[in-house]
Amino acid sequence: MSSLDIPSLRRAGAVCRSWRAAHNAFCLPALERAPCLFYACEEYGPNDAALYCPATGATFRVPFPGPPHERRGFTFACHGGWLFTTDEAGDPYLLNPVTGAQATLPPVKTIYQNDEFYDDGGKHVWSADPENGIMKPSISWARHLVFLRVAISTTADVTECTVLIVHNPKWRLSFARPGDDRWTLVSQDGGYIDNVLYNDKDGLFYILYANGSIGTLNLCEPSPSVTMIMRSVLPSLGYHTMYPVIGPSGELLQVWRDWSHIDTLLKYRARDRR
Q1: Where do the structural domains in the chain lie, given as residue ranges?
Q2: Which residue has the higher pLDDT, 136 or 263?
Q3: Is the CB of residue 100 less than 8 Å from the CB of residue 107?
Q4: Residue limits of the KIB1-4 beta-propeller domain (predicted)?
């Protein structure tokens, strides 16, 4: 069994009682209950990834279908063991690395103001601008720049979940469900959002802004909009990262990670050729 990948190992555990006992020896049940670290590495090649379970110390090799890692967008972890990732063109989808199941989401070009910016391959070419010191064209890829934050609701069937994204331009909010044709914009007003969170206790999404204010979003309403529940607590953006967290008793917490910008000397300096 040790040579099987996780989806095959899951199926093997359903054969009989003795195979189930062997399946449990691999600590797979812990993957559904404890947080895990999902990462790519050279050892597993371009089409597989590693899934590390801190609770057991076990590392599993799991299939990661899609383009090679260097041509894939950012991957976000979500509720229920699902990952939000993209293909080479930047079109997103949900992936369960344990079962191998996938769910399709609307294309990136259906997100507000992205339809004319990127071509069908998810590429935008910036022209040279010698007057501003830009001497040659450059390329932006949708898979790297569009998706900034992701939260997903918890449902028994992934096709019924709701995916909320913070995206460019201007850190806007949009949502969609697997099988939808387009992303739905929550508001055209931009605002710097530090993070988003889904609370399965009350079925609401929580939006944490960079100034410390918090809003809630009920995507079960016919015309959803953000309702502010906490005012700003920071005078400026500053150097910190903020996370909304649901505490053990169900209370909503803000976790701040402060950091300082430190000037460091460059090892190599450009030579003055004048």
Answers
A1: 1-64, 70-258
A2: 136
A3: no
A4: 56-261
